[in-house]
């Protein structure tokens, strides 16, 4: 992500705001490879080896530097502050990987580095809502089924799902219709006579 020059935050592109990602260090890019993990263990008296309980993952966080094109305009910094200072996590997408979405908010210290002559950059800390990134929802249109799949239910090919059947789906004149399915324990209890049949 740090190899990107431009990005989109809160559905606003950085070019429209007159800012781009800057890299102020020498050498290679340094990026997060895996999320930070914390091992939760329990120690008891007279036992050297602790009892393992679980692993907790920390939300992804990193810092970025932003170079400003129109630094001399006093409204530029004000406009960028309003853009970056969001009350909740907003989508952050880098141009180098437009299919990867981070839900991010800027936190901690924010610094402006400049030489006093209208040249400089902003450094901000970014924190995501989870240890992972996301992808955009994808819609597939014009999905066709073979003649062998026409019926009251759509049968999955055995190579895909070991002779399974996609229940609760009907092919109608409007296309595929998914029927109502009980999702609460009360509805399951009212409609179930043999409890061994619940999977």
Provide a descriptive summary of the structure in words:
This protein folds into two domains: 7-128, Elongation Factor Tu (Ef-tu), domain 3 (Beta Barrel), CATH 2.40.30.200; 147-197, no CATH class. Strand 1 and strand 2 form a beta hairpin. It is flat and about 80 Å long. The chain is mainly β and 199 residues long. It has a seven-stranded antiparallel sheet. Strands 4-5 form a two-stranded antiparallel ribbon. Strands 10-11 form a two-stranded antiparallel sheet. 13% of the residues lie in helices and 35% in strands.
Brief synopsis:
With 199 residues, this protein is mainly β. The chain contains 4 helices and 13 strands.
Task: Describe how the helices and strands are arranged.
Elements: E1 7-9, E2 12-13, H1 14-17, E3 19-22, E4 37-42, E5 51-57, E6 61-68, H2 74-84, E7 90-94, E8 102-114, E9 120-128, E10 154-155, H3 158-161, E11 165-166, E12 169-172, E13 175-178, H4 185-191
